[in-house]
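Bumping with the actual sequence this time:
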Amino acid sequence: MEERGSEQDERLRSELWEALYDLFLDEHERHLESIAELGVSPGDLKALMRLVPGDREPMRALADMWRCDASTVTWIVDRLEKQGLVERQAHEKDRRVKVVVLSRRGRQLRTQLMSRFYEPPAILSELSSGDLDTLHRLSLRLRPKTP
């Protein structure tokens, strides 16, 4: 009987993940449409979301963080700089190294994007209070554990 239970659990896990993944993909599409209205490309979005306000990231660190080569980082930073969203500055200890920092406009746009992204999907309004409570408790258990 235990074998059957594990098959059923595996099926439930699979169906759950498929439903969640489909929801995430739908929301991702909604976000891409939303950012297009703001003149932000998907590549710009990825960069803006990974830049932390107040942090000064060397270009090499950005290449590692964004998992791309240095020429791609230069291209992305050039685009963001032309839009007034980031600034290149000299590293405080090594002036040969360029660091990237969000500009005032970049911080504002990032805040605006974050608020849009954390707006709950409409489908959650269709859940009962009890279902929302259960989903909330379970989702907290699914969050990655920080070291």
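The tokens above came from a reply further down the thread. Helices lie at 2-37, 42-50, 59-66, 70-82, 104-117, 129-142.
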